[in-house]
Structure formats: structure tokens, C-alpha cells
Amino acid sequence: MPRHIPLLALSSLLLAAFLATGCRRDGTAKGQELYTVTRGSLDITVLASGNVETARSNNILQKVGCPAKIVTIVPEGTMVTEEDVEKGTVLVQFDAKDLEDQLYERQTAFENAQASAVTAEETLAIQISDNESAIRKAELDVLYAHGDLRKLVGDKLAATFSNQEPQDIPALLNHPDLDGTAKLNLTTYLGDIELAQTKLNRAEQTLEYTRKLFEKQFVSKNDYENDQLDVQSQSKSLEATKGKYEIFRRFDFEKDFQKAWATWQESRRSLERAQANAKIRLTTAESKLRTAKQTLAQARKRLEEAQEALRNCTITATMTGMVVYPKLPRWDNSGPIQPGKEIRNEQVVFTLPDLSQMQVKVSIPEAQIDMLTVGQTARITLDAIPGRSFSGKLSSKGILPSAEDEWLNPDTKVYTVKIDFDESGSHLRPGMTATVEILVRRLEGVAYVPIQAVQTDGEGRHRCLLANGESRVVSLGGRSRSFVEVVQGLEAGEQVLMCPPDASGGEEEEEEAPGESGVQAGGAP
What we know:
This protein has about 525 residues and is α+β, with helices and mostly antiparallel strands.
């Protein structure tokens, strides 16, 4: 079936055809090979070269967390077997001396942080207990102080003046809600005054009666004088009782009320201070505990990182495959992978390709990338296996131009395309050079001629030279590796020269494959 060939190969074909058919500048068909225009199927393809690689590769990375120097590494090409996986065979060993010192330091820091966290936790528990005791004591002081105020003036007056001190404290003794010890004392003093007044009245009556009897000489002067002394005594007792009442009313009650009220107010403020201090101390203790826990968590994380880094200094076999060293970029002059080379963190040390699924990676020019879609079929040939072709399918194409190729050649934009082999085997190896021909579409029932049978004249028109010497203008369509579709100008059965002379009239020169406007080299219009 007709196939498409690249322009470089096209030049060689034209030259060979020219030499083989004995093309002449005189425009005659003598001794030249003819081609009969046919009508049929024409495959439009894209041809590219690339390298075989695995569709899936397990990259073995350096995960020490910092640059590390290789001490030992298995040679490239080593096959890692199931037995190696079972035994945990060491594949790479990095220098771990500095990491061992770091691990000791972080272990010490972790233990110190752990002790600080335990201390902070115990301190918090003690502070909580102290806060509870202090607040409970302050609450009891409030309760007792309020009880003393209620005891002094009663529940109603205590509630009335619980937040504001009265302006005239002695006037409370006349308040109808007065109760408690103040009322009891007030009643006692008033009772004592009344009793003293009664005793004085009785003494005065007795003295008056004795005076009358004394005047009549019925009693002695001594009896009369005793009654006079009794009146004086009762009068002084009344004055003393009234004095105690006044002192109680003006001084003692006011002092007792102010003391009880102030104690009540101060106990309430003490409770507030105790609650505030407890909150501050609790917050401080909790903050210290959080800080200690955060420090512990950070120390634990750093310790685990050091332990993980130390473990990662030894890479053992965890999967099967063939060890393949990575290809270093052109700008990387650090040297090949070998013992003594320093590897940065997360750098690929080697890969273990999965040979069960292979693919070809090629670069497609931007002029042809829109012709390709995922799922298109392809034919693959390998330089290492001549005479045999493989089938495949386009599995992915790049959305953006290849950054690496653009960096190497800014004037050329190419896209990365990958073609999966339909079947893989032991004969396929990563790195093999491959040529891929991707089938873009198939034209049915079209007329086509060999590419070298078409020339371009001085006006840019495409022409074919017929066997009878007639030069005919033709319109072209899609093309394959060797053939191009003739849309107009030729009919099936007509014969054209395989290598016509230069239609431009200039010196004989092999022409690049012709194409109409909108026809990309090697592709469909």
C-alpha cells in the first residue's frame, strides 16, 4: 500500500529515479520509465523517528532529604529478580555518617521535649487544683460575709443594700424591714430603758410615800434616806441604759453594719480576683503545655525525619526489573552515576523499567501535530530488528511544545507523541531506535501518481509530463510516503513520466515534493 516518506528520503528517491530512468533536459520521453495513473486507496501518513522506552518505569529516587554521596551501587543492566526482592538485596548505599550524628542530636532533643511536656502537663493539673481551692475559699468568704450581713439586719435589708451602702445607717434602726441581731439589740436596749424607767418610777413613788411617813414620824430617817438613795440609783441606772442605747444607735450599729457590708463587698471582689487570677494562671499553664506539646511534636517529627533519612540511605530491592541509569541533561556536567557521586534530594538514581509494556517516543513538528489524534494506528520498524515491523496505537500527544527541544533549538517547535506497541516481548529494549509511520486517514477511490512525477513550473503550478510529450497542469491533494493524490488534470489510465525534466526551464534540479496551498509536507490537505 502506498506510504508517505519524509522530504530527506524524497530527495534520495528523486535522484535515484533520475539516474535510473536517464532523465534529459530536452523534455523527450525517450528511455524514461512511465507510470500509469491509477485510482484506488491512498494512505495519508506521518513519519517520525524516535526511541523505544517503557510505558511505565519505576523511578528509584534519592530520598535522604539532602545531598548524599553514593558509597555503593549495582551496575547498570543488573537484573533485579524476585529472589532479590525476597532477600531485600541492597542496590544503593549512601554515606550516612552525618545523618547518624544528626539522629543522636535529634534523639536528645526529643527526650528533653518529652520531659518538658510531662512537666507542663503536671503543672497544669496542679494549677487546676489550686484554682479550684482558691475559688472555693473565695466563694465561702462571700457566703459567710453575706450571712453576717443578713444576720445583722435581716434578709430584706441585706438584699436591699447588697450593692449600695445606705446614706444614713442609723436610720435603718427605724426601718420597718429591720431584722436580725440589730433588731434584737434594739429591742433589748429599749426594754432595758423601759425597765429602768419603771424601777425609777417605783422608787420615786416609794420615796414619796416614805417621805410622808417620815414627816409623821412613822418611819426612821434612815429609811427615808435609803429610799432617797434608791431613787438616785434608779435614776443613774436609767441614764446609763439610755446612754448604752444612744451608743448602740449612733456608733455600735453603724460600725457593725459598715464592717459587715464592707466585708461582704470585699469578699465579692476577692472572688472576682480569685476567678480572674485562676483564669490567668490556667491560661498560662495551658499555653506552656501547648508550647511543650508543639515542641515535642516538632522534635518527634524531626526525629522521625532523621530516622527515615537514615533508613533511606540504604535502597533495597522492592520490585523486579533491569537497572537503567538516567540520561543526564546536556547542561549537567556532574558526571555519570557511580560511587563517589553526590546525588541531590529527589534525584533519580536509576529506573526499573516495566518491560511488559513498551512504547516509542517521537517528536512531531507543529505543522503536523493537528493531524494526529489518540487512537490512530501506526507501523513501527526498529533499526535493531531489520525486515520486521510492529503494530501500535498513538496513546498520547503533547498539548504544549517540548520545553527541552525548544531550549536546544528555539526556532523549531515540536510536540512529544507516544505510540504504544500492541504487543511486547523480550526482543524490545529501551533505547532502541525506531521509525514510526502513523496512519492519519485513508483516501478511497482517488487518482494518484508517484511524487517524483510532479514538477513545479516558474509560476508555481504543478505539472505532469505525459508519455506523448504533453505537459499538463494538475491540482494535488493528500500524499503518502511515495504517492500524491491528483484532484484534477489527470484521469486513470493515462501515462506520465516518472522523472520529467525541470518544468521551470532552469538547470535540472531535483524538486521537493509538490503540494497545493494548504497541503502540509507528508500529510493531508
